[in-house]
Target: Phosphotransferase
Amino acid sequence: MIFLLIIFIYELTATIDSSDFGLAPRVVHYDIDKRYIITEFINSVDNGNNQEEKIKSLAKKLKLFHKQSKSYNNKIFEFKKEYWFDKYEALPLKMKDDFKEVYYIILNQDKTFLNKDRVVSHNDFHKSNVLFDGSSTYIIDFDHLGYNSKYFDLATISISLCLQPRMEHVLLSNYGSDYNYDNFTYQKIICAAQYALSSVALVNDAKKFVDLSVAERRPFSWDCSEFSEINISRYKLAYNFLNYFKSLKRNEMFTC
Model:
């Protein structure tokens, strides 16, 4: 309970600070004891007609966030990873073997990027955590903050939005003109590894699904209409990310 409270306070501080800098929606109310935050409503627009402007806007906002986030507590991400590692160790042997490679990658994640690219990263910068109202971008959910490559958040949003190379270059060039596309591409592999591990860590009673085969490789593909199906949905999501990770390593082209 204290652990969850500490993480919430770190997240709350980052949310309030980001709100003050115009990076996140304005905080309307929060309750530390009940651990919830209420922010102003943002009418997020996603009509497909303004994708390039949306990409430019979120890239510039992410750059500002990375500059501002230097003052945020960076330990949340380490807490999260310790949880994932503990859950990995409790997996059935077959699943441990399946996810062994991604486990070791995330265990040594600080070795996957150059020190000059090190920032306090959002680390969960997928499309559901980015709101675009037609003119401005807002970032939400700061419960994964921690040191990582600046390219990790960029890689995450690229995978989440299924960007093709041209739009990836739009994303990167609006973040900063001195970008390295190879480093960005490598972080897409690390991103897939991280989400594979974090997703499988959420599966309760994993032995029930150990013989279930998942052939899909659709990242951020969530299919769960009933709460009773949540564990099998998490299992499928984890293997989708794992299969996607393997396809990226093989340098296979992927289209949504």
Observations:
- DSSP finds nine helices and six strands in the chain.
- Residues 181-200 form the longest helix (20 residues).
- The mean pLDDT is 91.
